[in-house]
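Workshop exercise sheet. Pairs work together: one partner reads the sequence aloud, the other fills in the structure field after running the prediction. Swap roles for the next sheet.
Pair: D.N. / O.F.
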Amino acid sequence: MNTIYDLSTVRALALHAQGLTMPNGLEGAPTQEAISATVKQLGCVQVDTLQMVRRSHYLVLWSRLGRYDPADFDRLIYDPNERRLFEGWQHAASIIPLEDYRYQIPHMRRLRENPAGMSLKWLQDPESSELLNKVMERIRQNGPVRAADFEYKGPKRSSWWDWKPAKNALEHFYAWGDLMIADRNNFQRIYDLRERVLPNWVDTSEPTWEERHHYWVEQAARALGICKPIQLAEYAYMKRGKARSYVENLLKDGVLIEVRASLNDGKVHSMVIHRESLPLLHQAADGVINPGRTTFLSPFDNLFWARGRDVQIWNFRNVLEAYKPEAQRIWGYFCMPIVHRDRLIGRFDPKMNRKTGIMQIKAIFLEAGIEISDEFIADIATALRDFLTFHAAKDMVIERSEPAELGLKLMAVL
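Structure field:
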């Protein structure tokens, strides 16, 4: 613990662990194997409904692999012959490797055996029990269904979480593990029986809660590369108080290693790494791992899951303003942070006009002190070209740029 690692080492290891250091153009073929390996490296990828550009889970893969065919990603989730991933609850709604399916089972069991809150209230209604039976019987007899396949003649619902009764039944069965997401149609979930979706090769032996929590905390350590001990909780989607004992156990067992490093505030902090990442830490310190990628990140990207890390390591605060009133937004509806080598240097707010094929950059911002050199513009332009190709955009417009010089130079080279 005598070595104090500098901020550039911390940044390099953090980005490398997230698959964000490969120079543009050197990523290799974006095969299904590469897609599956990337999801495994990250642990899971969050699914979200916002679609100003491609949905977040597709963007997370693009940020690391460059342009690829999203249909290849979909086949890994939904094609019975190629399925290696599944939809489940981890970091919110997520795409998860099937080899990790068993670690969802204790949570599914708890939701069934110890319902709480609105779920408990709904299940206590006698009509709910009858509905659950009818919904399950229909799926057993007739096959996969969408929520829209069930007729509803009740009162108009005013909130997105105020599901119609059949949707509620489907979501309960999904949370309990009786149903899985077999496919999506126009992003609508298609539910089917677990035994008709889950491949036979998947391990369904149930771990203990302790095994489950240790597994996800350890996975978080690998995926984050380096972080403060308690930040493992957010990546593992656990409360900090609950995660603390598991982090301490892994430190005691030597699975996690404590190191000292300087962060953005100039102070030396106690950090942790997974023992498997120790060679990577040395490579980052020696400059062997040298971040060379320029890319854009979804605001839901895994890089931001550990609370406070964006400010501590990059002096940058990731902000999602989609749910704020427009008048209160500073950056934009769906602002995507910009990675340039080992720094987070700005953000932009894109919107794909699917009717015209034009990518509208509603606004693009640089952080203070960023030099707009020719090399910098070339790097951003390379990432933008790939982003446009990934979206099959025919053209691009920049509506607002701060500083103005950035937008003018980008449009000149593009």
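Discussion prompt: The first strand starts at residue 4 and ends at 5. What would you look at next?
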